[in-house]
Amino acid sequence: MTSGGGIWDVLGIAPTDDRRAIRSAYAARLKAIDVEADPKAFIAVREAMEMALAAAERRVWHSEPDTAAKAQDDGTETLAKTRVELDDQFALERETRRLAELLDADFHPGVTEHSLVECLNRIWSNPSVHHIETGEEIEHWLAHIIADRLPRSDPLIAPALDRYGWRGHDKAVEHYGAPAAIIARADDLEALARITRPDHRYYEAFKLLERHPETVPARRRRVMERELRDVLQALRVHYPTLEWHFGESLLQAWVDDIETPRWGRPSLSVYTENAIHVADTAPDRTFSFQDRVFLLYIAGLILLLYLITKTMNS
Q: In whole angstroms, what is the distance from residue 142 CA to residue 151 CA?
């Protein structure tokens, strides 16, 4: 427990009976604490705030007669309101800890999308969130925990973007880049939704990348090589978080397979400057060596047929 003489030092303010000032000091101290990394500091600040509020109530009751009489008129109501506010705060802290645990794979490896969204809604429905300071604290905390727990926190991205309007607002500096990371992930998820539609031009290549290259016939890999290159390069340059969809080892196996030197075939790095967005059409390229050989082969067949026909007619 926090000692009575040190509660004001913990809160960083001079002794006061101004409950608003006490809550403001508490909110300011919370912003400077990493609750998950230093839970003892959080508990100390919390206890200091509660003791300060209690001390403020006592000072009101022992003040001058006029003030005490006035306080007595609404004392019961004030104390009841304080208890309700504290209960709401405790409930909010419980739900934020719960959400942090759900987003930790070590605690809950099989968490569902429904349980995450339900916990988030309970946080937002808490009356304390409607206070400006608490609401800003929750927004700040959510931005960081969603960004830090990607892709596990994916189900929370859409409701958070809708509630806080991070798109279209320059809050990247205010939140140290957390909303920017969330928006980037949202864009990648939109690209994932597009490319996994069966009518998308890169759908087949994308589905092939979900398999290990050794399980795909060599002929099939050669036929789809251009599309596979396009998707791999798009993931590398434009949609890096979608690599989580496959796993680092699987993508590396595909890169190694495509990068394996073959006579006349360019490496994947040749297309770095021409990397495409999966929602766009592929850029125009010059014919590859294989294309030239194939065209020469077709031209030779046509010439041979022409000579045979001319000989038979002569």
A: 14
233 and 289 in one domain? no
Task: For residue 306, give its domain range.
Answer: 285-314
Q: Are 24 and 133 in contact, with CB atoms under 8 Å apart?
A: yes
242, 188 contact by CB (below 8 A)? yes
Q: How sure is the predictor about 70, in pLDDT bands with cuts at 50, 70 and 90?
A: low
Q: 117 is written with which tokens?
A: 């969204």
SS3 for 216?
A: coil
CB-based contact 241:266 (threshold 8 Å): no
Burial class (CB in 10 A: 0-12, 13-18, 19+), 104: middle
CA–CA gap between residue 205 and residue 73 (Å, rounded) = 75
Whether 277 and 291 share a structural domain? no
* For range 235-258, the mean pLDDT: 90
Cβ atoms within 10 Å of 159's Cβ, excluding its own? 15
This prediction's pTM: 0.60
Query: How far is the C-alpha of 307 from the C-alpha of 179, rounded, in Å?
Result: 69
Helix ranges (H only) for 103-247 are: 113-125, 132-148, 154-164, 178-195, 203-209, 218-223, 225-237, 243-246
Alpha-carbon span 6 to 22, nearest angstrom: 14
Amino acid at 290: Q
Range name among 207-216, 278-287, 298-307 with the lowest pLDDT average = 278-287
Q: Sort 71 into a burial class: Cβ within 10 Å, 0-12 / 13-18 / 19+.
A: middle
Q: Are 172 and 180 a contacting pair, CB within 8 Å? A: yes
d(CA 19, CA 133): 14
Contact of 27 with 54, CB cutoff 8 Å: no
Q: At what angle do helices 39-61 and 65-73 cross, to 10 degrees?
A: 110
Q: How far apart are CA 251 and CA 162, in angstroms?
A: 33
176 within a domain of the structure (yes/no):
no
